[in-house]
């Protein structure tokens, strides 16, 4: 007789019990069947004996085991079916064995799955696919690659089911070297034009940042489904080429591919990266026309899109229209108010979130602290930080500490910020020291800046931005010899300063400017407008602040450099290329300098224009001579 106990098989013979595996029980069962079954004649006219014969024969039918496996709800039940199949000698049936491996894998019992797989006398492409896929799905990439290597060495031909699993494993690990190796195998077996394999390769290259390779394969595909289009659009967004994402989205629709909600979220994400308002409006109109529901995912993405395109009011409209909100929705809206300089509105939103029954998480508290930091709400920020563990069960991590260091640093409380850094128990990162170094620059505290820079360069010696920041602090202090040393160090380490660029969107076309740029087709008009503006600004008392020219040159040259900063060129172009009284929106890849900040305030007043500047850290809204940051930035 046979019984089950603790998922092991107990074989009873001649009154003796023993534990054994399902595989080991097969010879015992066969010997018992040989001695018992032939000795028992079956009376076909006896209903009970006829029923017994039917059930016995049923257990010799592979379909019986497949139907039972489909109804299994956990690995224990799969093991019981496995044991029964062993008893009846059905493991020799490849279909049954493959199904067992599949259901073990499905319930993440990979040890059982591989034990069965390893003992199989015969394997087909399904066997390999299920085993490789099973390891990939649970994130056991080492065994996934190892099993795939066994497949190649066995001489079996990989198919379009097995290969995508291995390629996705390369994607998840961002293992480009392994990905290229698998790509060579794809070529070797002539599967490069297979839809499923090629789509997986596009996805892998895009996630690994090799967007040109991804696009090459994408263009070679004979047929592209919605998923492939979405992957390619998302890949451009991730690789900071959001403009191509939106171009590809237009092409997808032209080819008759109808986007779903996932595709729209990807497009919204790309538009947020691009930061162009007219594109945001077009996407919003499309979503309304196609009647996509503003669920948590799409609605939250649209809040972020509008906020990063410079319109926090439209972001709030989307937020208010959403029927359902989760903690991420609230956090994104709070963050939007924060980097638009509306700290009080961010703080007002927080109790509304609590009243709705949603508790904050780490991201929410980071958003709150960031909002306090950029609005100068020092005491409020310190209160949230000190109470977050007790009141909201959120343990501060390095991002929370970074916000508080920034909060204290902006307020000029550098000693307190340093004391907090030295007392913190969580691991310090480059963002923390960078926030402190930025505060040292703002308040011209060279000694503390050197201390912060030492720690920062130990953590990230290859980041040119840190050297530039320290160099600027030395330049402000007139320590030109130290500036020269920093620049020499950068040269020896082959590091280059990130050049400053400013973009402005006019008539659905992006225009890019650098300092002293004369390459624009309307360059002559731009410089004429700059001259007119300079004359107007002088009349209202504007004096260029040459402290922001960090070069050891005379004042006249400094004035010339300030005069042609990329922000000023973009604003001058906006004034001549856009209708009167319409907002001018520009994007700067670096932090806007203090002189350009003053310039923007005065131009907004004398020209009657709203100027919206998105720099590397936040948004500035200039209107009637006042900035939304309150000059606290």
List the SSEs and their pairings.
Blueprint: E1 2-5, E2 8-13, E3 16-20, H1 22-36, H2 47-58, H3 62-70, H4 75-87, H5 94-106, H6 110-119, H7 125-137, H8 141-154, H9 162-173, H10 176-188, H11 195-207, H12 211-220, H13 226-238, H14 242-254, H15 261-274, H16 277-289, H17 296-308, H18 312-321, H19 327-339, H20 343-355, H21 362-375, H22 378-392, H23 398-410, H24 414-423, H25 430-442, H26 446-459, H27 464-476, H28 480-492, E4 502-506, E5 509-513, H29 523-539, H30 555-563, H31 566-577, E6 584-588, H32 594-606, E7 611-614, E8 619-623, E9 626-627
Helix pairs in contact: 1-4, 3-5, 4-5, 5-6, 5-7, 6-7, 7-8, 7-9, 8-9, 9-10, 9-11, 10-11, 11-12, 11-13, 12-13, 13-14, 13-15, 14-15, 15-16, 15-17, 17-18, 17-19, 18-19, 19-20, 19-21, 20-21, 21-22, 21-23, 22-23, 23-24, 23-25, 24-25, 25-26, 25-27, 26-27, 27-28, 29-31
The helix content is 55-70%
The number of strands is 9
**Strand order in the largest sheet:** 5-4-6-7-8-9
Largest sheet: 6 strands, mixed
SS class: alpha+beta
Q: What value does the Rg take, in angstroms?
A: 33 Å
Based on the structure, what is the oligomeric state of the protein chains? single chain
In what range is the share of β-strand residues? 5-15%
Low-confidence stretches: 1-23, 25-57, 550-555
Shape: elongated
What count of helical segments does DSSP give? 32
Amino-to-carboxy terminus distance: 81 Å
Mean pLDDT: 86
How is this structure best described in words?
64% of the residues lie in helices and 6% in strands. It has 633 residues and is of the alpha+beta class. A hairpin with a 2-residue loop joins strand 8 and strand 9 (626-627). Helix 9 packs parallel to helix 11 and helix 29 (523-539) packs across helix 31 (566-577). It is elongated and about 100 Å long. It starts with a strand and ends in a 6-residue tail after the last strand.
């Amino acid at each position: 007789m046979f019984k089950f106990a603790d998922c092991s098989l107990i074989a009873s013979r001649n009154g003796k019990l023993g534990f054994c595996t399902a595989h080991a029980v097969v010879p015992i069962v066969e010997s018992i069947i040989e001695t018992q079954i032939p000795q028992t004649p079956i009376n076909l006219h006896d209903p009970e004996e006829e029923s017994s014969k039917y059930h016995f024969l049923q257990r010799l039918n592979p379909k019986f085991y497949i139907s039972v496996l489909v109804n299994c709800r956990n690995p224990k039940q799969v093991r019981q079916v496995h044991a029964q199949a062993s008893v009846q000698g059905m493991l020799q049936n490849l279909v049954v064995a493959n199904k067992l491996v599949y259901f073990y894998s499905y319930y993440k019992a990979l040890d059982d799955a591989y034990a069965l797989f390893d003992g199989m006398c015969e394997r087909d492409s399904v066997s390999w696919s299920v085993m490789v896929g099973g390891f990939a799905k649970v994130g056991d990439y080492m065994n996934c690659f190892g099993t795939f290597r066994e497949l190649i060495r066995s001489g079996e031909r990989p198919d379009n089911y097995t290969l995508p699993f291995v390629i996705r494993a390369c994607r998840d690990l961002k293992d480009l070297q392994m990905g290229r190796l698998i790509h060579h195998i794809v070529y070797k077996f002539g599967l490069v034009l297979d839809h499923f394999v090629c789509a997986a390769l596009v996805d892998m290259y895009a996630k690994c940042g090799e967007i040109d390779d991804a696009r090459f394969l994408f263009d070679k595909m004979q047929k592209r489904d919605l998923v492939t289009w979405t992957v390619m659009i998302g890949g451009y967004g991730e690789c900071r080429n959001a403009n191509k994402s939106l171009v590809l989205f237009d092409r997808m629709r032209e080819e008759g591919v109808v986007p779903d909600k996932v595709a729209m979220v990807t497009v919204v994400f790309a538009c947020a990266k691009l930061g162009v308002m007219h594109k945001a409006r077009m996407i919003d109109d499309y979503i309304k026309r196609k009647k996509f529901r503003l669920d948590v995912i799409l609605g939250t993405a649209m809040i972020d899109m509008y906020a990063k395109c410079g319109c926090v009011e439209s972001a709030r409209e989307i937020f208010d229209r959403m029927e359902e909100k989760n903690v991420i929705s609230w956090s994104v809206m709070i963050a939007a108010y924060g980097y638009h300089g509306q700290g009080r509105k961010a703080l007002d939103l927080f109790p509304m979130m609590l009243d709705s029954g949603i508790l904050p998480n780490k991201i929410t508290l980071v958003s709150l602290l960031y909002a306090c930091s950029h609005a100068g709400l020092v005491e409020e920020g310190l209160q949230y930080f000190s109470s977050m563990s007790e009141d909201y069960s959120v343990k501060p991590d390095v991002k929370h500490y970074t916000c508080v260091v920034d909060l204290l640093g902006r307020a000029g409380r550098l000693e307190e910020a340093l004391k907090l850094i030295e007392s913190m128990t969580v691991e310090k990162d480059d963002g923390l020291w960078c926030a402190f170094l930025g505060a040292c620059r703002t308040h011209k505290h060279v000694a503390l800046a050197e201390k912060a820079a030492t720690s920062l360069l130990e953590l990230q010696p290859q980041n040119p931005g840190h050297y530039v920041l320290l160099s600027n602090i030395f330049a402000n202090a007139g320590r030109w010899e130290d500036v020269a040393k920093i620049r020499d160090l950068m040269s020896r380490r082959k590091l280059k300063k990130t050049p400053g660029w400013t973009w402005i969107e006019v008539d659905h076309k992006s225009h890019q400017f650098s300092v002293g740029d004369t390459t624009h087709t309307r360059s002559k008009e731009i410089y004429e407008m700059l001259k007119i503006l300079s004359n107007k600004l002088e009349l209202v008392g504007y004096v260029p602040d040459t402290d922001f020219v960090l070069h050891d040159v005379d004042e006249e040259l400094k004035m010339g450099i300030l005069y042609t900063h990329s922000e000023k060129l973009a604003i001058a172009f906006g004034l001549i290329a856009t209708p009167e009284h319409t907002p001018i929106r520009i994007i700067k890849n670096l932090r806007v300098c203090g002189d350009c900040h003053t310039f923007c305030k005065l131009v907004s007043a004398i020209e009657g224009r709203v100027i919206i500047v998105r720099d590397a850290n936040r948004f500035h809204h200039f209107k009637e001579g006042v900035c939304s940051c309150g000059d606290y930035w």
